[in-house]
Amino acid sequence: MSENEGSPGVTGHDVARHAGVSIASVSRALSGNRQMSDELKARVLDSAETLGYQVNLVGRALRKKRTSTFGLVIPDLENPFFSSLAQNISRSFAQSEVDVLIASADNDVGQELRAVQSFLGRQVDGIVLIPHDEKESRAALEKASRLVPTIQFDRFVPGSNVPFVGCDNRFGMKLVAEHIAEHEQAFPEKVFFVGGGQSSSSGRERSSAFMDFMPDSDFRDGNFGFSWGQEAARQILSEGHSRGFIACAADVIALGVSSMLISMGRSVPEDFRVVGFDDVGVSFLAHPTLTTVRQPIAEMTSAIGEIILASQSSKEIGALGLFKPALVVRESSPII
User: Fold this and answer.
1) What does the alpha-carbon distance between residue 333 and residue 269 come to, in Å, rounded to a whole number?
2) Cβ-Cβ contacts under 8 Å for 37 (sequence gap 6 or more)
3) What is the pLDDT of residues 283-325, one digit of tens each?
4) Rounded to 5 degrees, what angle do the CA atoms 54, 61, 163 make?
5) Helix-strand-coil split of the chain, %, nearest 5
6) With contact defined as beta carbons under 8 Å apart, do 76 and 252 qualify?
């Protein structure tokens, strides 16, 4: 079966006859990435729709020796930050012929490896992996990178030579520390840091950087979860603290912190000031609005898109790197 065969009984030649064009014109119109007039393209697409024609992607893949697909493996679809990353990466390919296949590891390295194996079995042209664990994800990362162009995104496995693109977490925490320092005279309260755990590079980097910049802070570590933010706030209040500055490793943690503070009768920002990290996903739901570090998601996902598209022809991935975030000041920790 050729690329120009589709639904049972309907071929590219049928579409060509119906539209009154050559089979070459049908191929150009359906490929979506070749120059032709809008009128001619519309005529071919209308005929294909009328006849119920469907491009045979398997045939196209055999002819081109690539599937025009890549796999995205994320740690957890329930985490709004990762869901937002997946959405932004998908948008980067909206105008191309490349399709994005998405799998969730469900915070399990076994599922992560299975997702990579499944994508490889489907002959994807490349894989973007957000490692669940900076140590245990090495097997999945190495398996992917041995066989297809691979990018680590947002998180990385230390010591790996697989290209990485992500946020400069240390610079982001420097911005938070400077923001807190600016409040020191008007709001000279105890500083807390609520971390996201040490199993991922992002969690480790953010907590390490913040404690370097503000070593006298009260550090509490947990995970990247809303319920952990609630528990951390409950701990702080149960210890008798009635005021303070709470910096969090992620917005989802900060939302949990704020919700618990408010439910326990405390005011944000009068009693406690709260700062998050990401400005992606559910941060817009915060009340009061959340001061946070904004990751340059559009720039990062656009860079990944460009690299993946370039690798379709070169089969190689160039060097990537860190993107600097910016502090966004809102109601939870306003400018003095």
Assistant:
1) 6
2) none
3) 777 889 999 999 999 899 888 888 777 765 555 554 568 999 9
4) 125
5) 45, 15, 40
6) no
